[in-house]
Every structure is written in C-alpha cells, then in structure tokens.
Amino acid sequence: MEKSHFFANMSRLKLIFRWPLMRTVTPENVQEHSHQVATVAHMLAIIKNKKFGGNLDPYQVAVVALYHDASEVLTGDLPSPIKYHNEEIARAYKKIENIAEQSLISMLPEEFQEEFLPLIDHHKIPEDVAFIVKSADVVCGYIKAIEEIAAGNHEFEKAKKNIEKSLEKYQTEELRYFIDVFLPSFSLSFDEISQPL
Fold this sequence. Notes:
Blueprint: H1 6-11, H2 30-52, H3 58-66, H4 72-75, H5 80-83, H6 87-106, H7 110-120, H8 127-150, H9 156-168, H10 173-182, H11 190-193
C-alpha cells in the first residue's frame, strides 16, 4: 500500500505562525486560522443562500476554506506588506504558492488527487466559492485585530485600519449582515458573551 505524507504536512500547519512581523498577545497559527475561516465562510454561504438568494454549497465553501492556506506548510506565511508590496512580487508569490499546492496534491495517493484539486489548487476553485472564502479570510484578520486591540496591543491599530480598507473590496450583503450581527460580540468579555441576549 502506498504511503502518503499529505496529512503529516497538514498537521504541521500548527507550526506556521501568522503575523510574523507583529507582536501578538495571543499567537495564532495557520491551522487554527483555517478552522476559523472555515466556520465564517460556511456561515457567509448560509447567509447568502437564506437571505440574499444565493445558491452556494456551504459545505464545499467550508472545506475549501479549511485548505485555503495549505500551501503555507511549504512556503511559510509571507506577511501581506511583503506579499502585496507590488504587482511583480504578488505574481511571483502566486506562482510559488501554486507550485506548493501542486506539490501537496502530488503527496496524496493518485486515486485521491482529483478530489483535492478543487480544494487546494486555487486555479480549480470556483470564483464564487473563492470570493466567499477570501471574504471570510479578511474578516478573520479583522477579528484578530479586534481581539489584539481589546487585549491592549496597540500594534494592531494600524493593521485594523488597513484591514477595514481591504474589507471594502468584499462588501456584499452577506458580509455586511455577518459584520452587523456577529462582529460586535468580539469586543466583549467572556462574561458579556455568555449571557443570554
């Protein structure tokens, strides 16, 4: 029986820390970030379907979100100010990212590779799914900034403003609904959020 390193690599996402150039009160790794993005993306898809006439598969969206940063186990987490410094760097990083994605897919037994292409290879993910996942990814960065600022870390104040600008690119009815309904609680204490509304 063929052996595979795929899930051993996925397990190492917990060793890749996000926000590498910033001091954080609570360190965040790619594995836990991916889980949060999956839960938010799942909810965004449900909101879109139930309230705004969408037709997305929330389960597909959630699974794509779980794997959205899988390539970082091979590339590391390149900070956004570097990754998007200019178009040339952004294009070069996308190529590196795709090579890492193909490398991960090739680690799977051949009979399963086709199943993972539309989860990991960014070129194979439907645009509407990719948009929801990216929206969730940006919202989760915003949540991280809110939490860090609430914990007294002023270093995230500029990051929060930058992320607010990024959120403008993803303004949809479902995102606005999520922000209005779910985001205010992230500024509250445990005692406040554990009380019935």
